[in-house]
């Protein structure tokens, strides 16, 4: 182990001189709290911050630096030796999990209940730091709910990933990317893949000339799909798998998706409706996610007959369909979605509902153009970056009696909740779901209402 004093040497060095890499340097450290991103915080004796993976709060470990230089604001590291383990630690069930291996799972080494507590701590910390909200302020009891069927004993792994993107190495072998790296960990099985994905046997065959192979196994039907991205100059292989599949291809140059054979879509189910999801478009990944989130949104909004609603970032129409059914023919729902193909699917999926209209384009540009000045309800489910200040400011002027915010990133959620507070909205309830077991990801549903109402 090198001396810890090495880490602080560069702090006073002029910024223009190249700083020495600390990769490989080892530090014996006490592990502090969990941080957003699947790691915990530690400090070297000189006070330099380390973000350490493969560890748990309260442990004493030897952390080996994986990224960072002298004088950097923080270093990234892996716990390579655990000197004093947490009572929440188990042996990672997956042989491909651990320092320097697959980067897909962050918490394989934590008991399932501990994983959910860690995620709850991250959500609480983000809410407090970025929105000034305690769990009590947010109407949240602090728990993170597992999806139905996922409450398994330690050592058993929920098979939840209905989409897995395998990276293909130069020899054509399928694997998964290492953490923050283009390097590939070859795998013969991904433990969190759903049975439908595993049954395809992607890992059992070679994929010469491919850069990636994505496997999709629908939950709402037996539809199976493989999405191939060729490496430069790579020729598409004949796809013969253990189960029949449709095949799509991603164009290397512009990322456009094309059908090679079979169906261009998979069929999913939620709230008693079938949704077509075409050309590798977005659908919730966990088999229980669509219904879990839909129920949380409907319970929070409680749509009434004749109300008007917006479904922003609506994808193929998951929430728009459920709200439209509840507001009935006298009500109206406007969905906005940027993806052209997703909009075609949403229009197809909700064609039997004359009270739904779907507009294509970015929320930030389409919404102001609609001329809408008021609505009763809003559901928004933005991508990881969140909705942002301008959009939240606009939404806060529409007089909605309830807003449901579905968030896959608690930091973006907290930032947007702070903007909503500026716009006169407060959080009525927050529910947090573990729809991504073994990883650091977590899904939140916040229900907002005008602050004056609850004051
Ligand atoms: C998290 S997904 C939610 C989709 C849908 N609510 C669901 O649960 O199936 C976010 C969606 O927002 C779309 N999107 C991303 N940025 C957007 C923007 N600026 N305006 C409108 N839609 C956007 C994406 O194409 C994607 O379909």
UniProtKB/TrEMBL annotation:
<feature type="binding site">
    <location>
        <position position="337"/>
    </location>
    <ligand>
        <name>S-adenosyl-L-methionine</name>
    </ligand>
</feature>
<feature type="binding site">
    <location>
        <position position="284"/>
    </location>
    <ligand>
        <name>S-adenosyl-L-methionine</name>
    </ligand>
</feature>
<dbReference type="GO" id="GO:0008168">
    <property type="term" value="F:methyltransferase activity"/>
</dbReference>
<feature type="region of interest" description="Disordered">
    <location>
        <begin position="1"/>
        <end position="20"/>
    </location>
</feature>
<feature type="domain" description="TRAM">
    <location>
        <begin position="20"/>
        <end position="81"/>
    </location>
</feature>
<keyword id="KW-0489">Methyltransferase</keyword>
<dbReference type="InterPro" id="IPR030391">
    <property type="entry name" value="MeTrfase_TrmA_CS"/>
</dbReference>
<dbReference type="Pfam" id="PF05958">
    <property type="entry name" value="tRNA_U5-meth_tr"/>
</dbReference>
<dbReference type="GO" id="GO:0032259">
    <property type="term" value="P:methylation"/>
</dbReference>
<feature type="binding site">
    <location>
        <position position="381"/>
    </location>
    <ligand>
        <name>S-adenosyl-L-methionine</name>
    </ligand>
</feature>
<dbReference type="InterPro" id="IPR029063">
    <property type="entry name" value="SAM-dependent_MTases_sf"/>
</dbReference>
<feature type="binding site">
    <location>
        <position position="313"/>
    </location>
    <ligand>
        <name>S-adenosyl-L-methionine</name>
    </ligand>
</feature>
<comment type="similarity">
    <text>Belongs to the class I-like SAM-binding methyltransferase superfamily. RNA M5U methyltransferase family.</text>
</comment>
<dbReference type="InterPro" id="IPR010280">
    <property type="entry name" value="U5_MeTrfase_fam"/>
</dbReference>
<keyword id="KW-0808">Transferase</keyword>
<dbReference type="Pfam" id="PF01938">
    <property type="entry name" value="TRAM"/>
</dbReference>
<dbReference type="InterPro" id="IPR012340">
    <property type="entry name" value="NA-bd_OB-fold"/>
</dbReference>
<dbReference type="InterPro" id="IPR002792">
    <property type="entry name" value="TRAM_dom"/>
</dbReference>
<keyword id="KW-0949">S-adenosyl-L-methionine</keyword>
<protein>
    <submittedName>
        <fullName>Class I SAM-dependent RNA methyltransferase</fullName>
        <ecNumber>2.1.1.-</ecNumber>
    </submittedName>
</protein>
<feature type="active site" description="Nucleophile">
    <location>
        <position position="408"/>
    </location>
</feature>
């Amino acid at each position: 182990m090198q001396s810890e004093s090495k880490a602080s040497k560069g702090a006073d060095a002029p910024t223009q001189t190249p700083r020495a890499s600390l990769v490989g340097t080892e530090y014996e450290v006490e592990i502090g709290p969990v941080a957003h991103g699947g790691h915990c915080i530690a400090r070297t004796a000189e006070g330099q911050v380390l973000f350490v993976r493969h560890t748990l709060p309260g442990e004493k470990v030897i952390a080996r630096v994986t990224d960072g230089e002298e004088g950097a604001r923080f270093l990234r590291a892996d716990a390579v030796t655990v000197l004093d383990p947490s009572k929440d630690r188990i042996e990672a069930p997956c042989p491909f999990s651990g320092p320097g291996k697959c980067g897909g799972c962050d918490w394989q080494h934590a008991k399932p209940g501990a994983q959910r507590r860690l995620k709850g701590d991250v959500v609480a910390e983000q809410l407090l730091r970025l929105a000034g909200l305690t769990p009590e302020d947010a109407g949240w009891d602090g728990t993170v709910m597992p999806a139905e069927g996922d409450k398994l004993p330690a050592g058993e792994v929920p098979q939840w990933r209905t989409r897995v993107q395998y990276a293909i190495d130069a020899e054509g072998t399928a694997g998964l990317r290492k953490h923050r790296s283009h390097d590939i960990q070859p795998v013969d099985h991904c433990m969190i893949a759903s049975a439908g994905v595993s049954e395809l046997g992607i890992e059992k065959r070679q994929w010469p000339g491919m850069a990636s192979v994505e496997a999709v196994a629908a939950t709402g039907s037996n539809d199976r799909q493989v999405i191939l991205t060729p490496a430069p100059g790579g020729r598409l292989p004949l796809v013969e798998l253990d189960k029949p599949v449709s095949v799509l291809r991603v164009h290397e140059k512009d990322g456009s998706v094309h059908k090679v054979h079979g169906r261009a879509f998979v069929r999913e189910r939620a709230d008693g409706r079938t949704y077509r999801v075409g050309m590798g478009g977005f659908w919730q990944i966990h088999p229980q996610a669509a219904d879990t989130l839909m129920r949380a949104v409907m319970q929070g909004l409680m749509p009434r007959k004749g109300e008007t609603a917006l479904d922003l970032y609506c994808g193929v129409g998951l929430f728009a369909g459920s709200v439209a059914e509840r507001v009935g023919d006298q009500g109206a729902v406007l969905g906005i979605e940027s993806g052209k193909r997703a909009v075609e699917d949403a229009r197809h999926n909700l064609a039997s509902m004359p009270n739904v209209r779907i507009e294509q384009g970015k929320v930030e540009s389409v919404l102001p153009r609609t001329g809408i000045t008021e609505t009763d309800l809003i559901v928004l489910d933005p991508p990881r970056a969140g909705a942002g200040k301008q959009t939240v400011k606009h939404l806060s002027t529409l007089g909605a009696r309830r807003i449901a915010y579905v968030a896959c990133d608690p930091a973006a959620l907290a930032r947007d909740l702070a903007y909503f507070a500026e716009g006169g909205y407060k959080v009525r309830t927050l529910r947090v779901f573990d729809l991504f077991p073994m990883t650091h990801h977590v899904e939140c549903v916040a229900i907002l209402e005008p602050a004056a109402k609850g004051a």
